[in-house]
């Protein structure tokens, strides 16, 4: 789930720069299509008497997507952590083996080429929690099912590309130019809400470039076309039959549609889809700063226009911003001569620059305008960023990893851990050469908590064996349990203190 404006903004799963293709014939297409009938398409300024003809042309290229997943479930032993734990396991006959259940997800997608490339959202085809996706099925409007190959995913933009195959050509649709979308334009959404395949809804563009989050790609087309869970990954069409958005999320107090839906603009999606189809790695620009929008008081204090600029709250050591001389307190007004605004954030502008590019950055420092040149770095992955931010700020619960990401370490020791990286070491005030697992969270009901272990501590070794991966610690835990040991001996490195040994009971 995502949260915005105090209401639930739910992902709709049930269960750099290239030119966009414009001017293509509208509608789902195959090699033998007669495009002459497209000439009767509704003009841009007109109000359609019916969406039936448009729907008939587009619907063949819109598909339903389902996944079958194998999800590991938490240990249901009510005697876990007590002397009776093994007795319970023997009765159930599981001998401490992980338990699994089958999971599913439902979503939508659309075919973008005659040879069967399919576009959808990453979260439609990604595993949930501690699961693995075992099968992806694409279902055509006529009910024909195809097993899909996952070609590529991009979690940052929430996009994924699949491939299906058959001997004859598939119907397909094309991306349009979302930069030409205007508030009030008619749009049509086709998808698989609540598993009801082939559902068509219509509405208008309610807002363009709506910022509904804090990520670099949380910029959407807003529509009042009814979209719900299961519409995720489905297309949002203009009246020329071009895909101008990919339905992604809704803003709702109840989880159902209230007329506020969001779609990833084609101008964002099309270049990324092209790279995923080509098997290319998605690289984005990165400055290495923490930022905050400029509010009215800040704008008044430094004498700049409202709704412009972002203030630098912190600068990461060794990253592009520090190398360029950018400091905390600077207010960035533009990047590469493009203004920083609420609809065109600093994160978005930088992320869409190619790493290694040197660009001018206009900023205000001490009331004076100045320009610095920054050579853009490579943006870390979403997981790397999460780990970097995990130890910043206070110990509030929202900084911890999701509970669904639990491991054997969490189950047996009550600890959430991540491998050390140079960035985490800097945040913890440790040398870059420190190896081990950083503790990201501690179950307050565990023996680890009673022994004083806390977030920010680093596990250097377990049972006298140095560790640097979660798998290594899991192996030591498994060995200890196999030898009927009740605890493991951890060597802990704390900030500003010498390393010491702590024996933590298994549960």
UniProtKB/TrEMBL annotation:
Main location: periplasm
Subcellular location: Periplasm
Hydrolase among keywords: yes
EC number: 3.4.21.107
Catalytic site positions: 123, 158, 232
Top-level taxon of the source organism: Bacteria
InterPro entries: PDZ, PDZ_sf, Pept_S1C_Do, Peptidase_S1_PA, Peptidase_S1C
The PDZ domain, residue ranges: 283-349
Keywords: Hydrolase, Periplasm, Protease, Repeat, Serine protease, Signal, Stress response
Keyword Protease carried by entry: yes
Reaction(s) catalysed by this chain's protein: Acts on substrates that are at least partially unfolded. The cleavage site P1 residue is normally between a pair of hydrophobic residues, such as Val-|-Val
Binding site for substrate: 123, 158, 230-232
Signal peptide location: 1-21
GO BP term (any one): proteolysis
UniProt family annotation: Belongs to the peptidase S1C family.
The protein's name: Probable periplasmic serine endoprotease DegP-like
Organism from which the protein derives: Qipengyuania pelagi
